Input
Amino acid sequence: MNSGFFENPTWTYGGGLYHVKANDRLMIDNLMDLTHETCVHANSIGQPEIDEAPCTTMVEGDQVILQRHMTGIQAPPFWQMDMSANGLDPQAQVNRWQICRFIPPTHIMIDVGVALAGQGGFDAAPERKAYSVVVDFITPETETSHWYQWGMARQFKPHDAALTDKIRADQGGIFNEDMEMLQLQQANICQWPDRKLLMPNIYSDGVQSRRIIERLLALENIPVVTA
Ligand SMILES: [Fe+2]
Output
């Protein structure tokens, strides 16, 4: 993960804060899931190739890393806009990456971007790609609510304030779609509290993240409350 953007003038940042009426673990499940984009975000970052490219999961100590790489595809609308902003042909074939990193207790950083196909993908030169880091800080409030600080740090056109506003608005819209889904999930959980969450893949990234949280809570003798 690139974390050099904090004090680097070639990077900039825009973001916001949402109050979400859902347990914080549901947000972690959501951010550590790269399968919902085609249905929840079909008009922005979703695309059919997502369902065709496998994800890999790694656990490194207390961190979970989930990634997907797609090669030789057309960028979805959100990334076409970013390619245009960085002077790239939005119709060009690209390689796309998503690298999610869960860092306990509750934050997630996601490397995301597209690079012109054949130019090195994630490692391509800055002028050959549109590269960002999605920043997610989650603060639990109650068993059924949390505060979600979200944003995007980007490596291209850092002084373009209008672009920062546009990306913030687009990203805010994408996270609104997630928020609506999470709040409906929480409403269902409250309505049927005796039903357990379905976790069909115990090796999935959300499940691994939950296990790390539970292990760390156990070390502090804090009772685990599952959403
Ligand atoms: Fe989402």
Summary: Strands lie at 12-20, 55-60, 63-74, 93-103, 107-116, 129-142, 145-154. Residues 20-218 form a domain with the Naphthalene 1,2-dioxygenase Alpha Subunit; Chain A, domain 1 fold (CATH 3.90.380.10).
